[in-house]
Amino acid sequence: METISALDDIPVVDLSNPNEDLVARAVVKASEEWGIFHVVNHWIPPELIGQLKEVGTEFFQLPESEKKALASETKRLQEHGRKVLSDEGRLLSAVSRSRCEVRTPRHTDLSGITFLIANQVYGLQAFKDNNWFEVKYDDSRIVVIIGDQVHRMNNGKYKRAEHRATLDKEKTRISWPVFVDPNLDHVVRPLPELISGDDNAPKFKPYTYRDYKFHIWNRLPLD
């Protein structure tokens, strides 16, 4: 039987600490041990986050036809963003029809880093040491998730966080992720300054981000 651990185990990095070296060390430690952490005191006004949630909630409450129409009119939506909106919409529709739990399965993000804000319906879970850890939400926190590209650039030093999302049977969980991606033609490889000697040889082959996504989406071998 799988274990869901406490809410307060995910590392928290306080950006208001005047000692920048300590902040950097905290980010490195969280990235190496978890691949996911919270940042607090990030100077994004809570009013702005509140507006994001309000507008986002209004969007997901629209009929499916109106959501698709709005998405098709917005050319600035990136390819991955379109997929997320589409998948999220289908999941929410499924929940409203069936009232049963729906999950996005265990995965890592293809991006470099993901910044995530969510409403206060828990559902994001991070996997570490054979346990699932529930990720806490409140308006003071932003969740930072290390993705595949930073993991590869660091030659595996920073973990790419395995995570999944659950949807409450009675409450609607909505999240607003920002995926920080390389340019599609950028070649992602372990950084030269992190590779020295045979004991730290490159663990990953270089790929353009476009080719990497093609391999993942088509389930082709990488390294």
From TrEMBL:
Belongs to the iron/ascorbate-dependent oxidoreductase family. Keywords: Iron, Metal-binding, Oxidoreductase. SUPFAM superfamilies: Clavaminate synthase-like. The keyword Iron applies. Pfam families: 2OG-FeII_Oxy, DIOX_N. It comes from the Eukaryota. GO terms for molecular function: metal ion binding; oxidoreductase activity. This is Fe2OG dioxygenase domain-containing protein. It comes from Brassica cretica (Mustard). The keyword Oxidoreductase applies. Residues 87-182 form the Fe2OG dioxygenase domain. Gene3D superfamilies: B-lactam Antibiotic, Isopenicillin N Synthase, Chain. InterPro entries: DIOX_N (IPR026992), IPNS-like_FE2OG_OXY (IPR044861), IPNS-like_sf (IPR027443), Iron_ascorbate_oxido_reductase (IPR050231), Oxoglu/Fe-dep_dioxygenase_dom (IPR005123).
